[in-house]
Amino acid sequence: MLLNKVKNILLIFFLISSIGFIAISYYVIQTDTGRYYFKKVKNKIVPEERNVGFDTPKRVDKLFSLMQLETPSDHHVTIVQNVDEAVLAVEYARKIKGNATILFDDGIYDFRKTLNIIVPNVHFKSLHQDPERVIFKGLGNFKTVGVHNIIKVERSGFVIDGITLTESPNHLIQIAGEADADNPIIRNCIFQDSYEQMIKVSYDLIRYPENSSDYGLLENNIFQYTKGVAEHYYTGGLDCIACKHWTVKRNVFRDISSPFQSTAQYAVHFWTNAQDNQVVENLFVNNDRAIGFGMIFSAIQNQNLQFYNQGGLIQRNVIFHSDSNDNHADVGIGLHGSPDTVVKDNIIYFEHDYPNAIEVRDVLSTGVIITDNIINKKIQLINGATVIEKGTKQIKKEDVINGLNKILLDLKINSIYE
Fold first, then answer.
1. Cβ atoms of 348 and 376 closer than 8 Å
2. How many CB atoms are located within 10 Å of the residue 110 CB?
3. Which of 148, 294, 311, 347 could form a disulfide with 337 if both were Cys (CB 3.0 to 4.6 A apart)?
4. Is residue 125 a contact partner of residue 103, using CB atoms and an 8 Å limit?
5. Cα gap 67→263, rounded to integer Å
């Protein structure tokens, strides 16, 4: 009897110890050779090395020569030099019901609370047209309780031009599609080191399905993780739900990559009732995934869901991924239930082992045109997708250098890793 009790106690102790080991090990173990995370694979616990990135931060060195937008003649103009003045200027813009330009003098603006834009046509611009001289900082690049963005936009006509935004627990900018915030313009900015997606365009499929953020422009910006890797897999560059007629052009996206556990979101992603958006002439370097149109969720059964993505153009982008320590390097361009989309004249070159440059998924992906792309991996059709493909060319590493040099020159980038 006593022997059975001892056996039971030992068994319980072993089970508790095992569960405790699994629970703790899943998060982190520090060893002499680095930090390791654990994941479950076929009912076994196996180590996965966390990509910890660079020892010192690295940035994209780029010349911002694109001139700022002119200030409209009917705008009230305020020059600010610190956080308190900036908050008062935003409050005054509300008081006069919008049509206000706030010019930010050089400095670091340490915002502890979200700047809420609830009136139309509010413009944020750097006084000296240099994003490296005006820096908006949030609470930090870590998870917090509640939502903490640096800027939330709830009205149309918002402009931000020539500013760096960094270190936010959620998003650097959230644009509320559910509030019908149309025509945002985002130019000449640097976005870096957010815990989640750097720019999030949100949407309410249930309550306000008719409202979305349309006709946005994202031009001549940098999106980067300065350590070479994100803090979390649930991140991205521009994440747009239900957006229509947006243009994303001449930006650079770098190191939007997961440290462990799962693949990062697309660097640029349009999905759930998104339609007729264009992603053109951008550079993507060492991101887990570059461009995604659509995302299929079989669990969503709602009459307001018209399509996962409809149409759109992906053209003249350069997508490059070196053979780095990114654990979850994945596809370059992914179409998920995205009919009538055109993928044209892109260069995609991977040194990692993922086999596909372009993936087209689901029977809903019909009328897709894939033409004149230069790649070194496969074009893969999955789950009944159909495409018209022509002019695809396979390239070698030495051939892609010309494409990289050309876009670096066009975007006035001196160094990807400075």
1. yes
2. 13
3. 294
4. yes
5. 36
- Partnered with residue 378 across adjacent β-strands are 356
C-alpha angle 195-198-199 in degrees, rounded to nearest 5: 140
According to DSSP, the residues that pair with 315 across neighbouring strands are 280, 344
Rounded CA gap, 106 and 59, in Å?
A: 19
Give, in order, the Cα–Cα distances in Å from 248 to each of 28, 129, 133, 142: 37, 21, 24, 27
**Distance (Å, whole) CA 179 – CA 132:** 31
Element (H, E) at 252: strand 252-254
Cα angle 353, 54, 262; round to 5: 45
**Cα–Cα distance measured from residue 24 to residue 384, given in angstroms and rounded to the nearest whole number:** 42
pTM of the entire predicted model: 0.88
The distance of Cα 14 from the centroid of its chain, to the nearest Å, equals: 43
At 113, which helix (H) or strand (E)? none
DSSP assignments along 343-382, one per residue: EES-EEEE-SS--EEEEEESTT--SEEEES-EESSEEEEE
**Per-10-residue mean pLDDT for the chain, 418 residues long?**
44 37 28 27 45 88 96 98 98 98 98 97 97 96 87 98 97 98 98 97 96 98 96 96 98 96 95 98 98 84 91 98 84 98 97 96 97 97 96 87 92 96
| 34-41 and 29-31 strand pairing | antiparallel
CA dihedral defined by 277, 282, 288, 289, rounded to 10 degrees? 30
Rounded CA gap, 236 and 349, in Å? Answer: 20
Written as one string, the DSSP assignment of 274-342 is EES-EEES-EEES-S--EEE----TT---TT---SEE--EEES-EEEE-S-S-TT---SEEEES-TT-E
Contact yes or no for 360/380 (Cβ under 8 A): yes
Name which of 386, 378, 340 is nearest 361 in CA terms. 386
Q: Could you tell me how many residues make up the chain?
A: 418
At 389, which amino acid appears? E
Residue 14's pLDDT is 37
164 contacts 198 by C-beta, under 8 angstroms: no
| Start-to-end Cα distance in the chain | 71
